[in-house]
Amino acid sequence: MTELKQFIEAMERGDYATAFKISLPLAEQGDADAQGKLGVMFDDGLGVPQDYAEAAKWYRKAADQGQAKAQFLLGLMYGDGRGVPQDDAEAATWYLKAAEQGDADAQNSLGVMYAEGQGVPEDDAEAVKWYRKAAEQDNAIAQLNLGNKYADGLGVPQDDAEAATWYLKAAEQGDADAQNIIGFLYKEGQGVSRDYVQAYMWLNLAAKTGLEDAKYDRAVVGGKLTKDQIAEAEGLAREWLEKHCE
User: Fold this and answer.
1) pLDDT, tens digit, 9 for 90 and up, residues 152-204
2) Is residue 78 part of a domain?
3) Is 80 a domain residue?
4) Does residue 79 fall inside a structural domain?
5) pLDDT tens digits, residue range 63-113?
6) Which residue segment(s) compose the domain that 223 sits in?
7) Residue 63, CB half-sphere, CA atoms under 13 Å: how many?
8) Is residue 169 located within the same domain as residue 191?
9) Are residues 95 and 166 in the same domain?
10) Contacts of 231 (CB under 8 A, 6+ apart)
11) Are 181 and 190 within 8 A, CB to CB?
């Protein structure tokens, strides 16, 4: 059995001490994957005392070898100021390295940096570019962010239908904010054909996560539906939950 397989099995059964023993010698020998995994263990306190500085050290070793996920995680540490001094420009630098390798989380985070002008000049078009790359990899947060850009007409022409398309993609992946928004759009007939059953379904799912706006709009939509239509919408919500929350 390879060390990697042993590591994965140890992590899956929650035997973090064994996982640490396997990864440490590999990391010290320069194995980038092991270095990245060791960084995660120190970052989350798995089998070792939580130590952000130590996590950053191992992320950097892996990142310097070009490991995209470690580059992204090191960027997060600079963005948050965990284990390293807070530095948005340094965070953006590492996000870019990972994003250029196709890491969807890094692409979305880089998009956020451009949207907010953190560590890079504010540039909505550049934000849209990176959001789109991540969204096309089914990153739900990026799909929501891209939907927002189309809804507001920032970096792209304002387009309610395109916004709704991306909100729906994120909603279908379980993003509660996107479910709330697409439910509202079905309620208003904005970017989609008005459909109170679909509106109730999505608002119902969002409301189950505790979103107060969704609870209010669900009640409004419920007042426009028959009992049979409400039952249909609730059935659709149950089907979605059964499919996605097994």
Assistant:
1) 999 999 999 999 999 999 999 999 999 999 999 999 999 999 999 999 999 99
2) no
3) no
4) no
5) 999 999 999 999 999 999 999 999 999 999 999 999 999 999 999 999 999
6) 179-246
7) 28
8) no
9) yes
10) none
11) no
Decide if 75 is inside a domain: no
CA 106, CA 122: separation in Å to the nearest integer?
Answer: 17
The token duo for 178 is 């996107």
| CA distances, 129 to each of 17, 39, 204 (Å) | 42, 30, 32
Together in a domain, 137 and 95? yes
Q: Among 150, 173, 196, identify where a domain stops.
A: 173
Last residue of a domain, one of 134, 149, 173: 173
**How many separate domains does the chain show?**
3
The answer, yes or no, to whether residue 136 has pLDDT greater than 80, is yes
SS (H, E, C) the chain: CCHHHHHHHHHHCCCHHHHHHHHHHHHHCCCHHHHHHHHHHHHHCCCCCCCHHHHHHHHHHHHHCCCHHHHHHHHHHHHHCCCCCCCHHHHHHHHHHHHHCCCHHHHHHHHHHHHHCCCCCCCHHHHHHHHHHHHCCCCHHHHHHHHHHHHHCCCCCCCHHHHHHHHHHHHHCCCHHHHHHHHHHHHHCCCCCCCHHHHHHHHHHHHCCCCHHHHHHHHHHHCCCCHHHHHHHHHHHHHHHHHHCC
Q: What percent of the chain has pLDDT over 70?
A: 99
> Do 111 and 169 fall within a single domain?
yes
Q: 95 and 165 share a domain?
A: yes
